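Need residues for this backbone.
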């Protein structure tokens, strides 16, 4: 059993659990993003959520891919409500929080959230107020963003304390990943972006991709770039998408599932910067408070 106990945060340097009061800075907010679409963000997010849950963490997934929200499709679940229903009187967090299979809790973003900053003060307060309680329900919040450099994607990755950038080894995916790194480095002072290389055929291929992007990040952006891990090309992923059953849950011994378990360990025990804003800071930035 690994992972922080509910209500406990880890001392970043020594990994000593610290007691913190509920709902404050202890919740980690990790945005999962990519430059190119279709590189595996949603599968990574959902399967990582399951692996982290198995390791003892309380995880919440926010489906913030507003164009093509499909966390529920990968999970084989169906959400009838979404985040913006919280604007309605009498709709509470528990009404939009879906208890998906395999212990995955998630919230669908729903289209319209990209206009969040244009909502009235009262509307933004209402959403903030109701959503704030997520911090008490989760140790880690994974935000599945859309691909690319759209304003709403950038909003999410700039508001999150940690960003996981997914790419495949394809040159087009690498070019687009670099564009995200560049935009990220321009707009944020806290450079906390980590790479996941998906669909690699062997470790050497992953090392090559990471070295290429690290050199470019270092040379042109002056930005440190860590690699969180890689995921092998595995037909189990496609099969699990077709069956709408996440591979970590139904094929835990597949190579892709074992890679995800490795990634979960990196998330829990790898180096990370001190969490600065947490979930409330994330919401404040999204809703412009
Ligand atoms: N490691 C892998 N091995 C084999 N196939 C994979 C792997 N990862 C992803 N795929 C394939 O890529 C497809 C797209 O994955 P996914 O939907 O997770 O990408 P995405 O980045 O979320 O896409 P979008 O940008 O449209 O949201 C999957 O349905 C699967 O067929
Ligand atoms: Mg997706």
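Answer:
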């Amino acid at each position: 059993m690994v992972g922080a106990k509910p209500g406990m945060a880890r001392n970043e340097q020594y990994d000593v659990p610290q007691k913190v009061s509920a709902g404050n800075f202890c919740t980690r907010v990790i945005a999962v993003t990519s430059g190119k679409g279709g590189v595996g963000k949603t599968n990574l997010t959902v399967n990582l959520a399951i692996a982290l849950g198995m390791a003892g963490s309380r995880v919440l997934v926010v489906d913030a891919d507003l164009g093509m929200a499909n966390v529920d499709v990968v999970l084989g679940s169906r959400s009838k409500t979404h985040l913006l229903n919280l604007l309605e009187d009498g709709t509470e967090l528990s009404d939009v929080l879906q208890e998906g299979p395999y212990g995955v809790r998630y919230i669908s973003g729903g289209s319209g959230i990209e206009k969040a900053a244009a909502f009235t003060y009262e509307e933004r307060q209402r959403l903030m107020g109701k959503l704030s309680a997520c911090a008490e329900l989760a140790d880690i919040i994974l935000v599945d963003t859309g691909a690319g450099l759209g304003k709403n994607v950038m909003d999410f990755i700039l508001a999150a304390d940690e960003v996981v950038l997914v790419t495949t080894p394809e040159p087009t995916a690498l070019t687009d990943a670099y564009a995200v790194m560049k935009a990220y480095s321009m707009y944020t002072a806290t450079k906390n972006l980590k790479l996941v290389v998906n669909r690699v055929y062997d470790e050497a291929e992953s090392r090559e991709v990471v070295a290429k992007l690290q050199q470019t990040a270092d040379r042109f952006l002056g930005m440190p770039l860590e690699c969180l891990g890689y995921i092998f090309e595995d037909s189990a992923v496609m099969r699990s998408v077709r069956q709408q059953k996440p591979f970590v849950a139904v094929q835990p011994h597949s190579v892709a599932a074992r890679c995800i378990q490795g990634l979960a360990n990196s998330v829990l025990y790898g180096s990370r910067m001190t969490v600065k804003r947490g979930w409330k800071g994330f919401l404040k930035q999204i809703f412009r408070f």
